[in-house]
Amino acid sequence: MGINDTRTQKPPNFVGATRAVVASSATELTDMVDVVIPEFDPKQRWGPCKWMPRGDITTLPARGDDCIIIFDNERNIWIIGWWPI
Description:
The protein is mainly beta. The protein contains no helices and 6 strands.
C-alpha cells in the first residue's frame, strides 16, 4: 500500500491520541517519518508526520518504534512520544 498523505485524505474519526508504529526512520532532526496505525489499517502508511525531539537530540524515531500520535486541526499527524528510549 502507498503512503496516505494526511494533508489530502480525511483521517478516520477519533478523539484524542492513538497508538501507531513508526514505519520509516528519521536520520536527522528535520526528517519527517511515516507511521502505521494498526487500529485503522495495519498495512496503510500515514504521513509525513512531524515529531518532537527529546532531551537527547541524538535519539530519533526509528522504524518499528511504538508511538502515540495526534491529528491537528489541519489534518497533520504529530508524534507526541515514542518508545523505546
